[in-house]
Amino acid sequence: MECQIGLLPVVLSALAALAGCLNLFQSDCYTANGADYRGAQNQTSPQGGKPCLFWNETFQHPYNTLKYPNGEGGLGEHNYCRNPDGDVSPWCYIAEHEDGVYWKYCEVPTCRMPGNLGCYRDHGDPPPLTGSSETSNKLTIQSCISFCRSRRYKMAGMESGYACFCGNDPEYWKYGEAVSTECNSVCFGDHTQPCGGDGRVILFNTLIGACGGNYSLDGAVIYSPDFPDTYGPGRVCYWTIQVPGASGIRFNFTLFDIKDSVDMVELLDGYTNQVLARFDSRNRPLRPFNISSDFVILYFFSDRTNQAQGFAVIYQAFKELHPPETAGPYSSSPNQTLIEVITERTNLSGSAARSSKILYVITTSPSQPPRNMPGWTVYALTALLILTVIAILAKILLHVSLKWNGVTGSRTIGDCHRSSAGDIWTIFYKPSTSISIFKKKLKNQHDDRNPLVGE
Ligand SMILES: *[C@@H]1O[C@H](CO)[C@@H](O)[C@H](O)[C@H]1NC(C)=O
Ligand SMILES: *[C@@H]1O[C@H](CO)[C@@H](O)[C@H](O)[C@H]1NC(C)=O
Ligand SMILES: *[C@@H]1O[C@H](CO)[C@@H](O)[C@H](O)[C@H]1NC(C)=O
Ligand SMILES: *[C@@H]1O[C@H](CO)[C@@H](O)[C@H](O)[C@H]1NC(C)=O
Ligand SMILES: *[C@@H]1O[C@H](CO)[C@@H](O)[C@H](O)[C@H]1NC(C)=O
Ligand SMILES: *[C@@H]1O[C@H](CO)[C@@H](O)[C@H](O)[C@H]1NC(C)=O
Ligand SMILES: *[C@@H]1O[C@H](CO)[C@@H](O)[C@H](O)[C@H]1NC(C)=O
Ligand SMILES: [Ca+2]
């Protein structure tokens, strides 16, 4: 299942592995919890299972088309499984049971994000992944993936909401695969993510959510840093995509949630570092597009405020005997015109120029000479120097006369330290085994804490 065809000796198995990768691209979901599922499964399991109720007929429950008439969360005049409330998986209302169960998680086999290797049985001795492990009452999918990635493991597994296992074990499946709904215990660190179950481990490739990497496969999915958590503040990441022999690379953003106009994604020509496309909250990638190069750099930048879910992008290299004719809007020259074609708005001023300079620093070889300083920079620096000297002199004078104020200053620092000790509260957090009951109450509450309100 791992998408690594480069080292396989036999051509046939290489083809099979690539086919496996391509199948993964046909996934209906690119989020860990299927919040983006828009497929048409209308029962809780493809083999039998309970029939789902229509969202336009569930007015006795919090989620229905009367309350969300504009297709929020994918609701509509249908009875397809959806995840409108930030649960760990798509679900639907069912005709009520004797025991009061009125909704169920859906087992949707096509809704598995690429890089999620599935839900597997664990009999404990030895576990499916035999590398490092840890437990944490703040476990998220990415906290476990990061733990394993930093120890150079290719796979990370979460179990029972708080346990994390790492490994490279090729036979992780040996105790058998389980249905996805058996891995729907919430992560203790993030109740919108699935973290396995009792005796069930959910496995992920540790490439998910890495800040940067080098890709040479014909195709792969790249996720924003820290995925499926929101991307962190101050992230500067770049991924190289170099597929020798390709005449072009197709990009399809299947998920794009960038919070402000400062955070951004850019695509650069790998050879010239020229910015080919820039996306942010105002310039979203509307449709797939081609770049006619075999070497592209994907770049991500986030500032210190306003984080969001991030992105998932499929790339697929293709080979052509002759380059596409200049017919149609897409085959334009890959300068600024590409951006015009694929975004809502075109604006390459200011911040775009700054961002490519950041990348320029990162990717340029040290042999290249630094750029010449413009004249105004010299004047600005001189002015700054004079101001600094004045400030230092002033400070020395103030220090002599206001010495005693220093005490107040140090007290403030102490307060800061004290307030940062709020982490202590997490120790009192007791993981509850009745998570599903807790979730059931949530759906029952008619409360305003559902994620649709923000949309
Ligand atoms: C882009 O990816 C999505 C998700 O796999 C797929 O449904 C869609 O058809 C793709 N678009 C194109 C033009 O291939
Ligand atoms: C589910 O969808 C299938 C195919 O569209 C349809 O035949 C079936 O009647 C639907 N079942 C329910 C319960 O809506
Ligand atoms: C809900 O939508 C379905 C499909 O469009 C329709 O058949 C059904 O009559 C609708 N129910 C109500 C109460 O409007
Ligand atoms: C990618 O390749 C560059 C240069 O070949 C190397 O410096 C960098 O460490 C690689 N990054 C990763 C994540 O392997
Ligand atoms: C991108 O290139 C592929 C392969 O040549 C082609 O099938 C596809 O139509 C192109 N897509 C766009 C948007 O130009
Ligand atoms: C695109 O860039 C190339 C060099 O990078 C330049 O020669 C060409 O004139 C540019 N085309 C347009 C339409 O700007
Ligand atoms: C680009 O953005 C700048 C400031 O963000 C604005 O002044 C300018 O009018 C914009 N240009 C276009 C073409 O939208
Ligand atoms: Ca931001």
UniProtKB/TrEMBL annotation:
Residues 113-207 form the WSC domain. Keywords: Disulfide bond, Glycoprotein, Kringle, Membrane, Signal, Transmembrane, Transmembrane helix, Wnt signaling pathway. Residues 1-21 form the signal peptide. Residues 211-318 form the CUB domain. It comes from the Eukaryota. Residues 28-111 form the Kringle domain. Its main location: membrane. The chain crosses the membrane at residues 376-398. It is found in: Membrane. GO terms for biological process: Wnt signaling pathway. SMART domains: CUB (SM00042), KR (SM00130), WSC (SM00321). Gene3D superfamilies: Plasminogen Kringle 4, Spermadhesin, CUB domain. It is a single-pass type I membrane protein. InterPro entries: CUB_dom (IPR000859), Kremen_rcpt (IPR051836), Kringle (IPR000001), Kringle-like (IPR013806), Kringle_CS (IPR018056), Kringle_sf (IPR038178), Sperma_CUB_dom_sf (IPR035914), WSC_carb-bd (IPR002889). One of its GO terms (cellular component) is plasma membrane. This is Kringle-containing protein marking the eye and the nose. It comes from Pleurodeles waltl (Iberian ribbed newt).
